[in-house]
Amino acid sequence: MHAAIIILVFIFTYIGMAAGRLPWLQVDRTGIALMGVIALLATEVVTLDDLGATIDTSTLVLLFALMIISAQFAAAGFYDWCAGRIAISKGSPARLLALTVLVAGALSALLANDIVVFAMTPLLCAGVRARGLDPRPYLAALAGASNAGSAATLIGNPQNILIGQIGGLDFWRFAAVCLPPALAALAITYLSVRLIWHEALHAKPGAALPPPAFDRLLLIKASLGAIALLTLFLTPLPRELAALIVATGLLVSRRTTTRSIIGAVDWNLILLFVGLFVVNGAFGETGLPGRALDDLTRAGYLPDRLAVMTPLAVLASNTIGNVPAVVMLLSLWRHVAAGPLYGLALISTLAGNLLLVGSIANLIVAERAATVGVGFSARDHLRAGLPMALGSIAVAVLWLGLGGWMPWR
Questions:
Q1: What values do phi and psi take at 46, rounded to 5?
Q2: Residue 188 domain-assigned?
Q3: Which parts of the chain sit beneath pLDDT 50?
Q4: Nearest in space to 383 (alpha carbons), one of 112, 141, 96
Q5: Is residue 26 in some structural domain?
Q6: Separation of alpha carbons 4 and 2, rounded Å
């Protein structure tokens, strides 16, 4: 009876992940995951004492600490300043587009990409619209570049954080493998948006808004924290502890309240992770995943080769979303070699550019643009998202195969 309840909760949770929200209700993916946990607790299939064993605490600690560090840059006004500087830059719309891709990609490689796009979207919309330009190609570039840039490091996005923690991957070795295809993906993002939105990018920019100010002292403090973090990544200290030490140091301030910085943490994303960890952990206890994994191994369908990994990651990322897809896969598939983990990180992240629902960063861009009166629909995203995703995935697959990190089949 318990196994049947767990299986039903697991199925309905991931149907909810694919749908994005419950029909006719404003219950999103985080709410659906939490409802799954509550259903398991209410039926006494899982107890409160069991929760700790199913939650990957080190991943959550690292995610929380990185969000604190990124929030320091937001508090300094750095993201607003970056968006404003892009919007007021002299030159053609194509030059503004290139700056959007470069800035969003670079920031997303080192800071949580969700916070980057959350902070930059409104001011970028306001700035380019004030100059008489269509904001939509710049929003497509912002979303695409944030995903592409985040693929370069283990701290660029939530799924990479999880992959790095579970796989025990080295930060710098991961960057050496994944940075080249991430750079290629940034170039493909620029070319895709420029070609697809060429008419909108031929307009002549008008006068710019005055550039926003930023807090120099807070920015220096945040920058020193980021440098300290990267330095600590060279030591044997676990990444989550290194990030937590730096985050704690940044919270000590005479000018910025702890409440305001902690309030900038994406608690919805952290709760989504918690809910998925619990649901997947309970499902693992049924024994079904282990038997399914044995069957796949015997049939030769494990995603440790590109012929299986690529379609699986693309399909899962654009149905249930790349974060839930990675959480589910790694809860079922343990003891994975470094090569397939590189492939999972790259392909699941780059696949998130295909559809608007493929990445949390995409959804944040659309939702934040709507708050300032700019519509950015799923169709708007797909126009450039299709070529940028397919092109960058093709490059990543070739890189992983020719480099010997993953077999073709």
A1: -125, 140
A2: yes
A3: none
A4: 141
A5: no
A6: 5
